[in-house]
Design goal:
36% helix; 6-stranded mixed β-sheet; Rossmann fold; 4-stranded antiparallel β-sheet; alpha/beta; 252 residues; globular
Length: 252
Amino acid sequence: MSKLTVEAKDLNLFYGSFQALKTINFQARKHSVTAFIGPSGCGKSTLLRTFNRMNDLIDGVRIEGTAYVDGIDVYDKKVIVDDLRKKVGMVFQKPNPFPKSIFENVAYGLRVNGISDKHVIEERVIASIQQSALWEEVKDKLKKSAMELSGGQQQRLCIARTLAIKPKVILMDEPASALDPISTGKIEELIHELKKDFTIIIVTHNMQQASRVSDFTAFFYLGELVEWDTTTTIFMNPKDVKTQNYVTGRFG
């Protein structure tokens, strides 16, 4: 499992009697970007959320099979969910900064995790904002409210907040869908940089974005993982006709 950070084996997920994921087998390699593509409601975000157990928050969810992060079954009874979520960061569709200063937004996770040393917090906050390609834009206004930032800046701030607790994996659920093209371009450039240090899985409805940012692409349809391969193969030479029809725009 040395090259694998994230893995699903024979994973089934039910919302009550509805089966949202059907026997999913999937692997994500370290320091790579994997894009999940497919029509709305096909299971992309559901699978994404299994890896940091966000589905636990939904009533009536039942899971069969296993999901691994770093070789550990995340649904094992011994797993402490808060510790798992430190290892597996999440960036949501809409930027969700806290109504606090820019600095305190990034420091929040550190304080919650018991870090109180001012120098450590300051160092980690600055490093995370730099790593999220936001430093030049905010370095003179760290005490100002995060709510004053543009949507694209807020999303990069949320990425900085995720980076501050030093995860191994970053899950991104359509992180640029609410942003303008320039902000989207900055997020995509950032993803390229971040994969040097992190394993990234991104859900996107944007085919061009998937082809630009990812090394691997997984195509989902009606709760099934139809095909998973290098992004070049999925877009240029897919094996399954459903994949071909989707990536060429014939349905979806």
